[in-house]
Amino acid sequence: MRFLLVEDNPDLARSVQTRLSLDGHGVDWAASLADAEDHLATASYDLILLDIMLPDGDGRDFLAAHRRAKRDTPVIVMTARSAVSDRVALLDTGADDYITKPFDFAELEARVRAVLRRRMGAAQSLRSYADLTFDPLAATITIAGEARELRNRELRLFEILLAAPDRIFSKGQLCDRLFSAAEAVSDNAIEVYVGRLRKKLEGSTVRIETVRGVGYRLTSQ
Asked: Are strands 47-51 and 75-79 parallel, antiparallel or unpaired?
């Protein structure tokens, strides 16, 4: 998944980027609200991590404008404000969740997973499709009782495909969803991860189909 991190503290931003990248996510960093708008004008994101106090404005105003513009990208607010009234105001403004600074990265990762599950309409972590079961927390797919581990980018690629079975994704779309703008990757990288996933799916009725000249889709025979 591709995230936008809006945070003016470079040390915290680098730490969040590193931690979420280890989970296979691509994370673009914006140090100001103006930078965030520039990123949103050129890319699509699965999640926004938003600080409140930024050098050129208040993240709450950004959030309110984000919702007024009918943008439905999930937003997790990172705030030092711990009063109940502040948290309620954030949720009423349109935040999908919040986390209070300083925070533990394990909690941040859990909140990210929870928001993404809701985004995909899944209250539970486990998801069944055809003859396999997918567990994103354990990073496994289970086929005929055999659990097969997915590495980080394989996991994120499978999440994207499984969220929209039979939808065709171009290589460019998959690159945009898997990698940050700072990562220099080519379409060949997608071919590599698709090839790895196909091996993990062997023995299942689920397969990744190549639509020549267009892209890939997840389907079941």
From this structure: parallel
pLDDT in tens, 188-204: 889 999 999 999 999 99
Residue 84 or residue 19, greater confidence: 19
In 3D space, the residue among 56, 184, 46 whose CA is nearest the CA of residue 120 turns out to be 46
Task: Decide: 71 and 41 in contact? Cβ < 8 Å.
Answer: no
**What is residue 169's DSSP assignment?**
B
All structural domains of the chain, each given as residue ranges with its CATH number in brackets, are 2-119 (3.40.50.2300), 127-220 (1.10.10.10)
The residue among 54, 123, 61, 110 whose CA lies nearest residue 90 is: 61
User: Look-up: residue for tokens 């502040």?
Assistant: 86
Q: For residue range 138-175, list pLDDT tens digits in order.
A: 899 999 999 999 998 999 999 999 989 999 999 989 99
Q: Express as a percent the part of the chain with pLDDT over 70.
A: 98
> In this structure, what token pair is assigned to residue 18?
């590193």
Classify residue 103 as exposed, middle or buried by CB count within 10 Å of its CB (0-12, 13-18, 19+): middle
**Residue 197 three-state SS:** helix
| Bridge partners, 135 (sequence order) | 140
Concatenating the DSSP letter of every residue in 38-100 gives HHHHH---SEEEEESEETTEEHHHHHHHHHHTT----EEEEES---HHHHHHHHHHT-SEEEE
Do the Cβ atoms of 167 and 217 come closer than 8 Å? yes
Is 191 in a helix, a strand, or coil?
Answer: helix
Query: CA 154 to CA 115: how far, in whole Å?
Result: 20
Say which DSSP state 34 is in. Answer: H
